[in-house]
Write a structure and sequence with these properties.
The chain has 482 residues and is of the alpha/beta class. It folds into two domains: 3-140, Rossmann fold; 173-474, Dihydrodipicolinate Reductase, domain 2, CATH 3.30.360.10. The chain contains 16 helices and 17 strands. The structure holds 6-O-phosphono-beta-D-glucopyranose.
């Protein structure tokens, strides 16, 4: 690619993630030498003012020792800015002008704007010939707020761009540790024979956050936890855990297998929403020793938006028959933690039962963030002469990834995704059929809540959600791994 056109260039994602990622790639010599980055947004800036504001963003979000002045200068020189109101089609000519010779060739476009602007933006791009075969289009979430609106976006995109040109972002797929799930499952012979209903008792996926609304009042109150986190990130994690081995690590094979899982999710609707889901909203409390306000106070008015959701899901296929997948995510929980917890089945018969020794099932715990580690809990013998019978204890086999790869910088998810976009590899982007299968499942849940009149239950900030979330698993004899 020789140009990257970024819509929403002055926004929060651009400043916090995209520009720091592009800088990181540039400093490592990974961007094409002649790549020009054209930022666009409504603000009335020129190149100089835009570069200055991005220099400030780099200073805010990158460790000072990585900000070598040569690297910063070279990066800033790649930046151009065009002020644009996307609802005015005639202004797109200026954009085209800023892209130099043959502007519709070797062009990657990144839409980091409100989805309501996707339609006019795409129409404007088409109007000035920036939508042909030489262009790739990346779209940032939210891709709609339900299946119908997501289809409308996908249709608007598809009327101009082929699916092979469309790169839908789920930034979780850019996380090193999420890709590591594939390495763990398909790079080791050890797990796969047990990775099914015969070997696994249940799976838990937790994405816990300590933050609250972070200023995104209107957006979050419209979305809620199930649409903000489950519809995308958590269902992608579930798909990676549950999918069949793809034949190759390529875009078609991997996404074919993920979509099969997403389509095999057992619907949760008005019949079972109350027994299979729990929703909550945080009240005031303390997180990490700090007093924090409740959601409604933060928002400024009462709301029935859920800031916590727990779901007992099933995948209706041979591999996962009767294996529950418990999902939970929430804001203002006690710790920031993204983790996949897999509990294996008990041994079929304990030879130690006579001596009173208790066996615990093996567990595989894959920490995605902030700790990046893989831990296997195994039963081992406690040292001793065993006069009262052999005693056993769970001991972890622990791989800390930062220790194993101490000299490798941990990259922001967007570094990987932007590089893949520029190089045209869609493997870690979400295909249309995946997004739509995700929405289909989520829409049924939300319709079930509505039909049932389910309202979020209160939980104190700094707790692990409403007590009903604990009951959801305890009914099955399962305890959340906190
Ligand atoms: C975003 C959500 O997609 O993911 C946010 O909109 C959430 O609400 C964020 O905080 C979490 O991402 P990460 O990478 O911090 O786990």
């Amino acid at each position: 690619m020789k140009s990257l056109l970024l819509f929403g260039a002055t926004g929060d994602l651009s400043r916090r993630m995209l520009m720091p990622s592009l800088f990181g790639l540039d400093a490592d010599g990974l961007l094409p030498a002649d790549l020009v980055i054209v930022g666009t947004a409504r603000s009335d800036l020129d190149d100089v003012a835009f570069r200055k504001s991005i220099a400030e963003a780099l200073a805010d979000f990158i460790e000072p020792e990585r900000l070598k002045s040569n690297d910063v200068d070279r990066f800033l020189q790649r930046l151009r800015y065009v002020s644009l109101d996307v609802s005015k089609a005639d202004q797109f000519n200026v954009l085209r002008g800023a892209l130099g010779d043959s502007p519709g060739q070797n062009l990657a476009i990144f839409l980091s704007t409100a989805p309501s602007l996707f339609g006019p933006t795409i129409a404007g791009l088409e109007c000035v010939g920036l939508a042909g075969g030489g262009v790739r289009l990346a779209l940032e979430k939210p891709l709609g707020h339900d299946l119908a609106s997501s289809r409308a976006i996908n249709d608007a995109v598809a009327s101009v761009f082929k699916e092979s040109q469309t790169f839908r972002i789920d930034h979780y797929l850019g996380k090193e540790t999420v890709q590591n799930l594939l390495a763990l499952r398909f790079g080791n012979a050890l797990f796969e024979p047990l990775w099914n209903a015969q070997g696994i008792n249940h799976v838990q996926i937790t994405v816990a956050e300590t933050v609250g609304l972070e200023g995104r009042l209107a957006f979050y109150d419209d979305a809620g936890a199930v649409r903000d986190m489950v519809q995308n990130h958590m269902l992608q994690l579930l798909a990676l855990v549950a999918m069949e081995p793809p034949a190759r690590f390529d875009a078609t094979a991997v996404r074919d297998e993920k979509v099969k899982v997403l389509r095999s999710l057992r619907p949760i609707d008005a019949q079972n929403a109350a027994t299979h889901t729990v929703i909550g909203q945080y009240g005031k409390g303390a997180v990490a020793g700090q007093l924090v306000a409740g959601y409604a106070d933060e928002l400024g008015h009462p709301s029935s938006t859920e800031t916590f959701v727990a779901i007992k899901a099933h995948i209706d296929n041979w591999r996962w028959k009767n294996v529950p997948f418990y999902l939970r995510t929430g804001k203002r929980l006690p710790a920031r933690k993204t983790e996949i917890f897999i509990q294996f089945n008990d041994v079929p018969h304990s030879i130690f039962a006579g001596s009173g020794a208790k066996l615990a099932a093996n567990k595989l715990i894959i920490g995605l963030q902030p700790e990046e580690n893989v831990r296997l809990e195994l039963m081992t013998k406690e040292p001793g002469l065993d006069r009262a019978g052999m005693r056993l204890r769970e001991v972890p086999l622990d791989i800390s990834l930062p220790n194993a790869f101490a000299d490798v910088r941990r990259r922001i998810a967007y570094e990987r995704l932007l590089l893949d976009l520029l190089e045209g590899d869609p493997t870690l982007f979400v295909r249309r059929d995946e997004v739509e299968a995700q929405w289909t499942w989520i829409d049924a849940i939300r319709a079930g809540w509505k039909a049932d009149g389910m309202e979020p239950k209160a939980y104190g900030a700094g707790s692990w959600g409403p007590s009903a979330a604990i009951a959801l698993t305890e009914r099955d004899g399962v305890t959340w791994h906190d």
